[in-house]
Specification:
- The N terminus is likely disordered.
- It is globular and about 65 Å long.
- Helix 6 packs antiparallel against helix 7.
- By secondary structure, the protein is mainly alpha-helical.
- The protein contains 16 helices and 3 strands.
- The chain has a 3-stranded mixed beta sheet with strand order 1-2-3, sandwiched between helices.
Length: 336
């Protein structure tokens, strides 16, 4: 499925089945692939099948990259088809474990919010914000949904602004302010007969939808291939024809950053970087019945890695480690 495929044209059942087959073929990528398959099952209305996929991951015995994310998604899904008690138990377990990843917190808090448990949702958002953002001057992008969700719930509860709400306002980049987007009275505007009120509400909804689309599209980036230094040396030694593509490691890194900046300047969204390894590239070439020396295979390899959930979003936050693996902050390395 292409990232720009309209939602109404997606066959969620077939797409889920395709991802499950891909997970069988690439077990090292099963976590990312099965999470996407489960999302398609949920969108198709087959929530028990989605739960089965979450259970498959949790009982696989593999070391999951994001076990709390899988549990959070399972809880949210269970609640949607009547398993409230089990969902609450999972949510309580996640809150007790206090994961350092923002995503599970967002999912369980929004699940509580969706079922009108506003006080519990507010407590969950607040716990996460205090845990992950205490002493942080510039909140990482991944924590923004926590701040926005907390702001939204507090508006529904009629709570006054506090320091975390002010921080949410400061990182919000869309033209419609958070106070307007999260105004509990907005629903009444949709029933208004005043054209100006309706037009204003449509603008607010477009701004909010744009934020959701941006967040939802990130797992499916346009990806550029990055070879770590040792892998690139092994690649060009084994396949000298590729030395024209990669005259040096420094030139390789510079080309990646330049290409991504050019794509960003042209308006291409959802950019990412995938890291190549010689064994997986050779296996991919064999599956395509092509020699690894064929340079035209490289972009196909990058696309395949991205489709298997191996891409890392670009650009990183300026304070985060640079994508090149130098250990230096991006803002002091390739982000300069």
């Amino acid at each position: 499925m292409r990232p720009d495929t309209p939602a109404e044209n997606v066959d969620h059942i077939n797409e889920a089945a395709r991802l499950e087959r891909t997970a069988d073929r690439y077990p090292e990528d099963a976590e990312a692939l099965l999470l996407r398959a489960a999302a398609h099952r949920e969108l198709a209305g087959d929530r028990p099948a989605a739960t089965a996929l979450y259970d498959r991951l949790l009982t696989s015995g593999a070391d999951l990259d994001n076990p709390f994310l899988v549990r959070a998604l399972k809880a949210s899904n269970l609640w949607e088809y009547g398993h409230e008690a089990e969902a609450r138990a999972i949510i309580d377990g996640i809150r007790t474990a206090s994961p350092r990843d923002p995503a599970p917190w967002v999912i369980v808090a929004e699940a509580l919010e969706a079922h009108d448990e506003l006080e519990q949702a507010h407590e969950t958002f607040t716990e996460a914000v205090r845990l992950l953002l205490a002493g942080v001057s510039e909140p990482p992008r991944a924590t923004h949904p926590l701040l926005f969700g907390r702001h939204r719930v507090r508006r529904m509860l009629g709570a006054a602004h506090d320091e975390w709400d002010a921080l949410a306002d400061s990182v919000h980049r869309h033209p419609i302010g958070l106070d307007e987007l999260h105004d509990p009275k907005r629903v009444w505007s949709l029933g208004s007969e005043n054209p100006e009120e309706l037009e204003a509400e449509i603008l607010r909804l477009r701004a909010e939808l744009g934020a959701y689309r941006e967040a939802l599209s990130r797992p499916f980036p346009v990806a550029v291939l990055h070879w770590p230094a040792d892998e690139l040396a092994e690649l060009t030694e084994a396949y000298p024809d590729l030395a024209e593509e990669y005259p040096s490691y420094e030139a390789h890194l510079g080309t990646i950053e330049a290409a991504l900046r050019e794509l960003a300047a042209s308006g291409t969204p959802n950019l990412g970087i995938v890291r190549g390894t010689v064994p997986s590239y050779e296996a991919f070439a064999a599956s395509e019945l092509t020699s690894p020396s064929d340079a035209s295979l490289l972009p196909q390899y990058a696309t395949t890695l991205a489709a298997r959930g191996r891409a890392v979003a670009w650009p990183p936050e300026r304070s985060e480690a640079c994508w090149c693996g130098s250990g230096t902050a991006y803002g002091e390395c390739h982000g300069v």
